[in-house]
Structures
1.
Amino acid sequence: MAALRFARPALTRACAAAVRPAPTARTAMAMPAGVRYASTKLTPNFTMPTSEDLAELRERVQDFTRREIPEEVAAKTDRENAFPNEMWPKLGEAGFLGITAEEPYGGLELGYQAHCIVMEELSRASGSIGLSYAAHSQLCVNQLTLHGTPEQKTRLLTPLIAGTKIGALAMSEHSAGSDVVSMKTTATPVDGGWLLNGSKMWITNGPDADIIVVYAKTDPGAGSKGITAMIVERSFKGFSCARKLDKLGMRGSNTGELIFDNVFVPAENQLGETNTGTRVLMSGLDLERLVLSAGPIGIMQAAMDLVLPYTHTRTQFGTPIAHFQLMQGKLADMHVKMSAARAYTYATARRVDEGTMDTRDCAGAILYAAERATECALDAVQCLGGNGYINELPAGRLLRDAKLYEIGAGTSEVRRMVIGRAFNKEYAPR
Amino acid sequence: MASLRILVPVKRAIDYAVRPRVNSAQTAVETAGVRHSMNPFDEISVEEAVKLREKHKSAVEDIVAVSIGPPKTVEALRTAMAIGCDRSVHVETPEAADMLEPLQAAKILKQVVEREKPNLIIMGKQSIDDDFSQTGQMLAGLLGWGQAYGASEISVDGDTLTVRREVDGGTDVVKGKLPMVVMADLRLNTPRFATLPNIMKAKKKKVDKMKLEDFKERAENRLKTLKVAEPPVRQGGGTVENVDGLISRLKELGAL
């Protein structure tokens, strides 16, 4: 009895702690670690789009993909492993490349829900075109929007948003993937700028890019506090793309290995303050994960678009196969996975548009969507049976494309780690 | 060159890529929750009006889109303005009202013409929902204007319009003096994509709202829909071994 009575206060204290964590933020309003105000992620003239605006936007993107990215274009992009570069000016003219960017540079300032919608619908038409689109419009354009100077924006953002220049972002290296801070590319200060040396690996749009946001060590001894972001242009002497990579999926979203051999980067191309690159990088990663999470959702929708008519017309034993219970179960599970992922992504995007960003949910949205997309694509192959396993129908492509999202922009493992760390930080002893 | 004031009547219809379904009461095609967009023939007429402006610049004084339909019809007008119309007129009908018949639409359009005073009307030769293909001709008749149906090419010189029409077995070139009604066929042009920046700008363009009651002259409904049904499911065919087999099969079926 005594022991029990003794134990009770400790137990209630633990429960209370579990329900209401001790605030760690120094601000008066307690916010859990990992949550921060995202107002700095939005352009000054941003106004929240209404649900009608967003529905209309989705229809416009669908109009675009129906004209410009029919299945033949998606299949050809995959088969030939080459991005249709004439697509860039078309995307630019349509207004898709500057969804989150400021109006004076050609942007639309529609926010992240809108960006997710465009990403989802483009990925629904072609996973690889969607991925290259995100690398350009989110990784490159949005980083320039958030961290560029007015001069940089006029000079670089305008052609990127018009689609006359192609953008990329270079972070990962051979030996620095998930552990990105261990990067070996260095930039040493020289008169009037930096001298960049090293290489970057798995860079989406790398073989085609004209404007690349590159992260490099500017103070190698300082770890994460010694990284600076800078903008490399294709014309810079010493810059080259060593090779275009041959990938399992996302074929046609050109990926390359970039080499920097004594590349002089003028000071006016530095992005953000010296040695603050990690902050630029990490804040960008949250938004990157959020917008990219719409990619696997588009792939899941593409799987449904393929599977639903097929299973309702394919007849075996005198019955459309969609009427068999085992098939109904599969279709229902696919639908629920897609819808849950979509709800998570758009709820997170809405919160960012409202001004709050939660690292856990940005990582969580893509973690969830990516794994579900691989499952849905595998199910799509199965629903199509023999026809799912041949390349005449796109089920196999959807599967190969979907798998990328469990690896690119942080692996599923890293995403779980990011979420776990946010909790650890929240419960850290003060 | 005479200054052109162009009126482009447009209609919001079920999207061309949607497979239409009959409603459960078998009274009409199901429209609730179905994707709608501008009637493709009307997109072509909007494009043509904008092309005329691009070619003749300031000679095109005004391009006005007009549409008759329930509140959501304004979406079609926004698209028209995003493609390049300057402003629009929306004649609003009640949400669940029956679709207007050609003569009813033509009579309303006639009064819109009297209000807006265009000297050229470019409209789709038909809408893909009811497929009547009559409104343009009726409108020209009511106005007493010249008309050209099924245009595949339009050129303007002074106050003369030359229209190449698609007819069975070839083309037919007609000339007429303004004012005129031209009805666009599919091959007149390829409509441009309404870009997002233009859609945003179109939101600031003016839409005049009118109600059916604002129109004095109105026609009565003349048609009564008895029943709407899906076409019968096509029966699969069979194969024959050779020509002799084909002939005997045709004889069997009484076709020879």
2.
Amino acid sequence: MAKDSAVKKTGAEILVECLEKEGVEYLFGIPGGVNLPFFDKLYDSKIRVILTRHEQGAAHMADGYARATGRVGVCVATSGPGATNLITGLATANMDSIPLVAITGQVRTDVIGSDAFQEADATGCTRPVTKHNYLVKDVRDLGRIMREAFHVASSGRPGPVHVDVPVDIQRAAVEFSYPEKVSIRSYSPTVQGHPLQIKKAVELISQAERPLFYVGGGVVLSGASDLLRQVAEKAQIPVATTLMANGTMPYDHPLYMGVLGMHGKYATNTAMQKCDLMIACGARFDDRVTGNLAKFSPNSKKIHFDIDPANIGKCVQVDVPVVGDLKLVLQDLLDNLPGKDHSAWIGQIREWDREHPFSYDKNGKGPGEFVKPQFVIHKLHELTRGEAIISTGVGQHQMWAMQWYPARSPRHFLTSGGLGTMGYGFPASLGAKLAFPKKDVICIDGDGSFQMTMTEMATAIHEKIKVVVIILNNYYLGMVRQWQELFYKERFSGSCLTTGSGMRTKDNEPDPNSLPYIPDFVKFAEAYGALGLRVTRNEDVEPALKRALAETRPVIIDCVIRPNEKVFPMVPAGAGLDDIIVDMA
Amino acid sequence: MKQRPAEPKHTLSVLVENKAGVLARIAGLFSARGYNIDSLAVGETEDPSVSRMTIVVQGDERVLEQVEKQLNKLIDVIKLSDYVQTPHLERDLALIKVDADKADRSELLQIVDIFRAKIVDVSADSLIVEATGDEDKIEALIGMLSPFGIRELSRTGIVAMARGGKSLNT
């Protein structure tokens, strides 16, 4: 056989070879006019093509796969509408630093710019929502570009990379050998923390009396969760996590204090305000975590560890900035930190938590029969021991999932934190389930979020991907409704998802007896050949969950909850963390 | 005199890959993050694979820190330097088409002479002045020429270079 270097290959063959060399197992996407040469070569490849029903679903599936595994997720679309449909998925991945490679077909190079059929300036569209992108204009560059794409996506602060490949480039043949090395002169992320800065950090931590770890998704991305636990244990520092870092500490660990932010715990938010040293790890001081910046943790010294220098000092000025990969930085800390006792401080946070724990009325029965959303998730946590892979949409259900499903391990809680993309959860769960077929994968969704990407039920059935979707169905865009109730005088403008009057009880609440809802999610499931279950009473929750977990087909559990359920505690937008509203009462 | 800007101006020299789309990346970054560009000039360098951009941007220290960090994050940015603390040269080139009938010509010639500018084109009722210098000088010249009537003005934007033997790419 001839040596690789002497063999002529087409662009399409080069694409497939590069994906195989990167160890890609799944490719999520849809064929179309100008990616057909590529799809034709995929026909002979071991890479499994998951045909999605919409390109947004493809990007979210690749994203769910990437978040669950830590590997690069790959999605593919055709030109024009195929490429533009990917944008929401790319932006979602970009905000949460998720490694993706998106490959799109493009019209022939000689007609680019002529408003050809299905032409869009795809790289122009994806530029602001990707870490980097490429338009391939010469087939000789394709192998290098693919190599670079995977390298850029997965190194430094990870993110999505888009490669736009015109159809004539896919057909063109060139002598090709896979580039073994990748080198980009203008790209070399700093991974090792500066020793002097580490020394300063160690000094501050040694002196602190009330230190607090503020842990974000960067710890998950770096694979540093276990190191973080070791550092926390050695120096006896309590840990609070953001939404993105759910699972970095086992939920029942004595040093884990819970989740921070707008709908986080009273105890952790109070600890943020009262600590004398904040140690931010792979977090970026998002407004949903800090509340009003002017009132944010006014008396603490701050250390910030992050791979991205631009994250440091962007929102909050810190005393000791350290740029580096958390895996290396936390190892440095572990090697240099002395042991210490902070039991009084930890006891104080625990005390705050006892005063105002996450809670819900377990026996509450209002007019009609409704399920408590928190109870559903609490029960699910109990049945799965916090070990299932959970994905969510965005809204109230996402916050309840965060509060009531603290995960045991990292990469088990997949949620769109930065962009807040409704519709993320269901397709992401499919990507995660493909990666971990033996694990329970459950999408906790809202009725609004689910409807944004529920078309992927066809993909789930078609590809035999068994996930459970729990819809916390309150007939509304629930978080919008909550804000309208609290801040817009109960004027529910454009937030009700069902037809009005015929569905109401005398207390002006939807009447569960007048279901179906639009759509009837049980019939929707059945129409696709999935199992649909409806739950309207708390006592039916456990049997439904057990049945769903044992089922082999995809399952939808439609849980009918009250429209006026609200997420508490809550730090109103623009308020300081001290102004946390614990409950309505 | 020209009014002093509220925030200090910074002149950034940025070495970037000489590739299609790089200018759009830089311009997109500034618009997406709400930074103000005063001027932007691009050209090839001694290495044809590298372009040099000179960007004049306004902002306080924190804004500039973010501008520099965000620019550095772009994969195509090779190196950048803020000249705010560095002795450096700045040049702007302007072509100015001025109304010039016979009566005004000698006065115009004197002004052009004083500013060490050049007249590079003449017609019956106009002439084109070419001027090079830092921004203040160009502004001053424009101020002197405007009473005659400026028909057209085209400027390159600032290009800059640090004084001394050191170069940006070493």
